[in-house]
Every structure is written in C-alpha cells, then in structure tokens.
Design goal:
Number of helices: 12
Protein name: Aldo/keto reductase
Shape: globular
InterPro entries: AKR2_Oxidoreductase, NAD(P)_OxRdtase_dom_sf, NADP_OxRdtase_dom
Distance between the termini: 31 Å
Structural class: alpha/beta
Pfam families: Aldo_ket_red
CATH topology: TIM Barrel
Order of helices and strands: EHHEHEEEHEHEHEEEHEHHEHHH
Amino acid sequence: MSQPIRSPLSASLGETHPAVLGLGLAALGRPGYINLGHGEDTATGRSIEAMRERAFAVLDAAWYAGVRYFDTARSYGRGEAFLGDWLQSRSIPADAVTVASKWGYTYTADWRIDAEQHEVKDHSLPVLQRQWQETQRNLDGYLDLYQIHSATLESGVLDDSAVHVELARLKTAGTRIGLTLSGPQQGWVLERALAIQIDGVRLFDAVQATWNLLEPSVGPALETAHREGLAVILKEALANGRLTERNQETAFRGRRQQLETLAQRFNASLDALALAAALARPWAAVVLSGAATEAQLQSNLTAAAIPWDHEAEALIETFAEAPDAYWQTRGQLAWN
C-alpha cells in the first residue's frame, strides 16, 4: 500500500486531498471492547504483555504498509503507553508520523472484560489538566493532536470557558486541538464547536466523527467543517463490526446481500468496501481502521485500491438507518 507521508492535518483551507487510512487503538489497548467478535480477536491472550505484543505486531504491519496516522486515547486502557513504547522502540522520528490522542474519559475496567463500568466521562478542567500530563508521559514528543473525547451538548464542555482557555494555551504551545463526536446529534455539536473562538482565533483544528454506510447523517456538517479549514477524521467506518461478515443480525440480511453483491463486483471484502466508502468522501483527511489483528489490518488496507464509483455511491442513499435507531443499536453492543 502506498500513501503520502504528509500530515493529514496540514491541508490549508479549501484544499482537497485523497483521504488516507490511519490506525486507531481502541481495540488494541484494552482486553474488552464493543466491536463484534472482539473476544475472538483477543482469545490468544489478554494479559497486558499479550495485548502489548499484539498491538506491536499490528503497529509494525501498519507502519510497513505505509500507515502514518495513529489515534489513541486516555481511556483506551494502555493504548497510549503501547503506542508510545512502540514509537520509541522502533526509533521512529516524530516528524514521520501524526499522532492523536484524546482526553475526557478515564479507563476504569482494571483490565477486566466483565467490569460494570469500563470508562467514566468527565470533561472538567481538572481532568483535562491531569490527563494532559499523563498523555505527555506516554507520548513524549510525539503528540500532534489532542482531542476532546466524545464532546456532547450535555457534557457542558462546549460552554466551559476555563477548558477553552486551557486548550487554547496548549494550542499556542504547538499542539493542534480537536474534538471527537458521538451520537445522533453529531452535526449540532460540530456546529456549536465551530463557533468557539479564543481571542478571535477558532479553537478547533480537527474533528473526528462517526461516519459509515449505516450512519452518514453527519456528512453535511463535516463537509462544512472541511470548508472552514478543519481536518476531518472518520471513525467507526465498520460500525463496530456491523458492516463486516460478523454481523448476523436478522434485520441486517437484506443490507448484507447488497454489500456482498457490490463487494463481489470489486472482488473485495465487506470491511474493505465499507472503508472504501469512507475514503471516497472528498472532505475527509483520514479514515481510521480499528483493526485488532494483523489479518484484519491487511484486509482493511485493501480498501485504498477499490475504485469507488457512482453505482457504489448510490448505495449510501438507500442503505442508511435512522440515526436514532443506529445509535440505539450501538448503545446495546456488549463489551467482549
């Protein structure tokens, strides 16, 4: 796979580049996650050392395939530590990669899959200040983008001037600032975020949002953000596994047949097809793979070679679920 080694965050206002694939560590940094079949992916070992070894193997494969964008978060178990250790152990220059992390959730599962609560959300200033220091220790010298993790209207973070001032201070010191979105109100939250300025300067440089064939509703808002100069990063392009062969939902059979027919035309896997749809968004800079194994990563990487066309694009108009229904289903996915 050949990808440009430019930073996808550096595009100037109005420029459009082909989107690149990045690697997210949500499923690599902790033993439990909500992706379908995650338990199968970690069945060969869930100790910290086993997870670290698996993460390093996937990171190595991504690096050699040309992936240069890596995304993690404070709540991804040891995701930050794994990534930081891998970057240091491989002697990868900081200017050769783009590294993003997030603050606002605290990992609370204590390396258990059956924990009552896996993470706790808190967008307050003390959490930002504490997690910033933790991130700096884990990713020393590598962090490019620091994001509010799942900003929502309800969390109050978009109205917290003290948080905004602190983020602006970090931005002035050289770290780009972004936010990630989740839920059926992604577009409204993004519209609110675009209006936040400190001393006449827009606070946010990037936005990461859920966009996939089942839930494309935030697309127009992301296109607006792109026009205004934000780097757009797409996550959950596989809908936590629902757009892969692992989805056995009875209600999904019709959609699966549509996907399989299109995949056969491109001689592609379902996961690659779903990622190709995200890569085809002209306003996207990065599309994240959430691969938990080397095999999944290799399959995901083939998405870049799929020639997405008008016939494939027509699928989006008929394939989407109602946003509320999509997010309700996502909310019911089990940690495994």
